[in-house]
């Protein structure tokens, strides 16, 4: 039980702190409401569960055998974050010339895009590998696996819901076209910073 509590703490700290997933989900909630952000939240949670399933099936061996795999994931993840950040920033300038508010609907592929991004997020892999190693199989493998699956589902969902609430509250006081554009520019800039942090603060996964 103590190992599960440690794992829960690691997941909570990793998922509540600012990061690309939280920023993107918060942005969707701010522009389109909590219900519109649910598919994106589901994509993040499902991606995390899929990563955990791969690690449980033996993906950690691949990182140990091929340390360069982490470098490939880091570069791909940073490039993807830069692309998303650039789209947000460029979109605000394109919308600035319109007389009508910018479109705030959520694209149907938001959930799939965030689901796929989880596999390009090296910090996510580190979290899953660390928690899985800390908890271990235990005497009751099935029970431990079910508990881990629950932790990787409930805790990230609650943390994302909090970020959604912050986004909705923020836009309640900044509900103008100009303010929305500046928020999107800030979000885009933060995604660039997240990409830079991925590259400048690498994590050695070969010993996980």
TrEMBL record:
Membrane topology: Multi-pass membrane protein
Gene Ontology CC entries for this record: plasma membrane
Keywords of this entry: Cell membrane, Membrane, Transmembrane, Transmembrane helix
Principal location: membrane
Domain of life: Bacteria
Subcellular location: Cell membrane
Pfam families in the cross-refs: LysE
Transmembrane segments: 38-62, 69-90, 110-136, 148-174, 186-203
Record keyword Ribosomal protein present: no
InterPro entries associated with the record: LeuE-type
GO MF annotation, one: amino acid transmembrane transporter activity
Protein name per Swiss-Prot or TrEMBL: Lysine transporter LysE
Organism: Stenotrophomonas ginsengisoli
């Amino acid at each position: 039980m103590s190992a599960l509590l440690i794992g829960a703490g690691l997941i909570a700290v990793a998922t509540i702190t600012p990061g690309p997933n939280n920023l993107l989900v918060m942005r969707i909630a701010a522009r389109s409401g909590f219900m519109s952000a649910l598919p994106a939240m589901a994509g993040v949670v499902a991606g995390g569960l899929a990563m955990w399933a791969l690690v449980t099936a033996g993906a950690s061996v691949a990182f140990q055998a091929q340390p360069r795999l982490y470098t490939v994931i880091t570069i791909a993840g940073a490039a993807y974050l830069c692309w998303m950040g650039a789209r947000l920033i460029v979109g605000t300038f394109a919308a600035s010339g319109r007389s009508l508010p910018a479109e705030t609907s959520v694209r149907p592929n938001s959930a799939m895009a965030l689901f796929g991004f989880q596999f390009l997020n090296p910090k996510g892999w580190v979290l899953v590998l660390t928690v899985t190693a800390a908890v271990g199989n235990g005497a009751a493998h099935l029970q431990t696996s079910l508990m881990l699956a629950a932790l990787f589902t409930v805790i990230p969902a609650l943390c994302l819901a909090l970020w959604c609430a912050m986004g909705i509250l923020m836009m309640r006081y900044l509900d103008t076209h100009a303010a929305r554009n500046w928020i999107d520019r800030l979000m885009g800039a933060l995604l660039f910073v997240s990409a830079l942090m991925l590259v400048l603060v690498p994590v050695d996964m070969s010993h996980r």
